[in-house]
Design goal:
With 273 residues, the protein is an alpha/beta fold. It has eight helices and 17 strands. Helix 5 runs parallel beside helix 7. The strands form five sheets. The chain has an eight-stranded mixed β-sheet, with helices on both faces. A three-stranded antiparallel β-sheet has the order 6-7-17, with helices on one face. The radius of gyration is 17 Å and the shape is globular. A hairpin with a 5-residue loop joins strand 9 and strand 10. It has a single domain, classed as Carbamate kinase.
Length: 273
């Protein structure tokens, strides 16, 4: 498995995540890093300013053309640029991009959500070039669908698609909760695919946590691979997510499932189901 670290950050202010970026800068000097960012809260703020309503289905934003215009501007133009600049202030070579650049994220439209796509493959040669050059790839979750239309992509899904396509050992999905809890409210330090599906079916895992769990499961297709869902507010969130088995919730598969076929072009990596 690849030693590339794939990390997903939320899209809050840089001041809220300065401690995480400090850790990213330190780790990036030791191993390749892909940082995928969201921007949901800031997108909603801008939509409200412009009088564009927000609607969610199953924890995912329903995106029409007006919402996509705002999402693309906030994700690629604001949040992405801020993160690249902040990493460079920390002495890290970082480059900002989205899944549209080089067509490196291969996506298909999600029915019923408008201009929203799901990552089904990765043209990893594009990312490999950046990582071999020592760049931290800072990725905004946008991609072209099968018809070539630019779409919004859930940031957890984008991070999972990249992690699966690169075959990484560690995917970290940072959020504002300390992990997954069972029906009794107890935090779970580990969670298997079967256990996760039961918690979803029972309604214990719901809302925006469902796509996060689905993304994590899509990324752990190899024995030894794990996805960690953890609280970014901890002052040592990243180092603890990588080294402390009690921090957050670690998600694994009990066995590898067969990869499903996709329409990925030559030179790309398929993502298993």
């Amino acid at each position: 498995m690849s030693e590339v670290l794939v990390l997903k950050l939320g899209g809050t202010t840089l001041a809220d995540q300065a401690h995480v970026l400090d850790e990213v800068a330190s780790i990036a000097r030791q191993r390749p890093v892909v940082l995928v960012h969201g921007g949901g809260k800031r997108i909603t703020e801008w939509l409200e300013r412009l009088g564009v309503p927000s609607r969610f289905e199953g924890g995912l934003r329903v995106t029409d053309q007006a919402a996509l215009d705002v999402a693309a501007a906030v994700l690629r133009g604001v949040v992405n640029s801020e993160l690249v600049s902040d990493l460079r202030d920390r002495g890290v070579d970082a480059v900002g991009l989205s899944g549209v650049d080089g067509g490196f994220m291969i996506a298909e439209r999600v029915p019923g959500l408008g201009l929203v796509a799901h990552v089904v493959g990765l043209r990893r040669d594009f990312l490999d070039t950046l990582l071999v050059a020592g760049q931290v790839a800072v990725v905004a979750p946008l991609a072209r669908d099968e018809q070539g239309i630019v779409c919004n992509v859930n940031a957890d899904d984008a991070a999972a698609g990249i992690a699966a396509g690169l075959g990484v050992r560690q995917l970290v999905l940072m959020t504002d909760v300390d992990g997954i809890r069972d029906a009794a409210g107890k935090k779970l330090s580990t969670l298997t695919a079967d256990e996760a599906e039961k918690l979803i079916a029972d309604g214990v895992i719901k809302g925006g946590m469902v796509p996060k769990i689905r993304a994590a499961l899509a990324a752990v297709n190899w024995p030894g691979a794990e996805a960690v869902i953890c609280d970014s507010n901890d002052p040592h969130a990243l180092s603890r997510s990588l080294n402390d088995p009690t921090f957050g919730t670690r998600i694994t598969r009990q066995e590898r499932r067969a990869a499903r076929a996709t329409r990925a072009p030559a030179g790309s990596t398929e993502i298993g189901s």
